[in-house]
Specification:
Blueprint: H1 2-15, E1 26-32, E2 44-49, E3 55-58, H2 64-72, H3 80-86, E4 88-92, H4 98-107, E5 114-118, H5 120-130, E6 151-155, E7 162-163, E8 170-177, E9 183-191, E10 194-199, H6 205-208, H7 212-225, E11 229-235, H8 253-267, H9 269-272, E12 276-280, H10 288-299, E13 305-307, E14 315-316
Parallel strand pairs: 3-4, 4-5, 5-6, 10-11, 11-12, 12-13
Antiparallel strand pairs: 1-2, 1-14, 2-3, 7-8, 8-9, 9-10
Length: about 325
């Protein structure tokens, strides 16, 4: 039985990226996919509208190493620093934990001017804790003087759709609970009449006692019912064996499926069948990744199209 799940996982990873009988709208290049221990492979995904090279980064834990891996695989062509400067038009930062912002900070001296988008609570941490002269040079246009003014902070709101400058995309941000009261966020990105939903780190509603995921599902249910959601990116950090008191605001396979069942009560079960769900932020300790994949595939009663990204390999939706 384990062999069957492994084969199914390989098939989904290689062939499961675009919805059947539909032309891809978005392309994604994972620059980093893991939730820790390997600083060269931390959460970061380049997202662009198909047919363009105007990318926004969904988180920025790893940048240069991920771009170099994509060049090695033939996904990107050119010089890594030039791609960083020219093709990445901005950053959507879900929260300011280091595994989501380290690449942004370290690469900032060689980067070009662009926007950093996020909820006010996230941008405050970047401004006060990282881009300050106490810990790093202040490459932004707010905070501790002198201001180098390379980056501009753009506050996002659940009530307002914001243009992602120099791309063909717009975004709304929604608050998530990440070991409450610490806040993470989800980004609903739109091009024309098509959407991608990216979630930063999040705990399950039943663990966080917040109801924030349910509120998010209410916001996106109609989009999914209308077949306009190209993909959902969501974390699963630990296997089911991880004790509840050591989840630290993250999901397990069983908790993800419970959340998807909650979503299905708003959309109807049929609307979730074959919906691409990209699994992010797996903790690479020991055999965790393979165990998580096996458990997700086994528990996937909703017949979601589970996708396990690979660093540097192009995905289309």
């Amino acid at each position: 039985m384990k062999f069957y799940y492994i084969l199914f996982f390989l098939f989904a990873s290689l062939y499961g990226h675009a919805q059947p009988n539909s032309k891809p709208v978005f392309k994604v290049i994972p620059l980093g996919i893991k939730g820790g221990i390997d600083e060269s492979n931390l959460s970061s995904y380049m997202l662009a509208v198909e047919g363009t090279d105007d990318y926004v980064c969904l988180d920025a834990g790893t940048l240069h190493s991920g771009i170099r891996k994509a060049i090695l695989l033939g996904t990107l062509k050119g010089d890594a620093t030039a791609i960083l400067r020219k093709d990445i038009k901005g950053y959507l930062i879900s929260h300011a934990h280091l595994d989501h912002v380290a690449g942004l900070i370290i690469n900032s001296p060689d980067d070009s001017s662009k926007n950093i988008y996020g909820l006010p609570s996230c941008l405050y941490i970047l401004k006060e804790k990282y881009f300050s002269w106490k810990s790093w040079a202040n490459f932004a246009d707010e905070g501790e003087a002198p201001l180098l003014k390379k980056y501009h902070y753009v506050n996002l709101s659940p009530d307002t759709e914001t243009i992602i400058t120099n791309t063909m995309m717009n975004v709304k941000a929604f608050s998530l609970s990440h070991s409450d009261p610490y806040q993470s966020s989800a980004f609903l990105i739109r091009h024309a009449d098509n959407y991608i939903l990216y979630l930063g780190d999040t705990g399950a509603d039943e663990m966080e006692k917040s109801g924030k995921l349910h509120l998010l599902w209410q916001q996106v249910a109609q989009i999914i019912k209308d077949k306009k959601m190209a993909a959902i990116f969501i974390e699963v950090s630990y296997p089911d064996e991880q004790p509840v008191n050591k989840l630290f605001g993250h999901l397990r396979p069983d908790l993800l499926i419970k959340e998807m069942n909650d979503l299905s009560r708003l959309t109807g079960i049929d609307a979730l069948k074959n919906l691409p769900v990209v699994i992010t932020h797996m903790k690479p300790s020991g055999k965790n990744e393979m165990i998580i994949k096996e458990q997700l595939l086994k528990e996937n009663s909703l017949h979601l199209k589970l996708i396990f990204p690979q660093q540097g390999r192009l995905m289309k939706f």
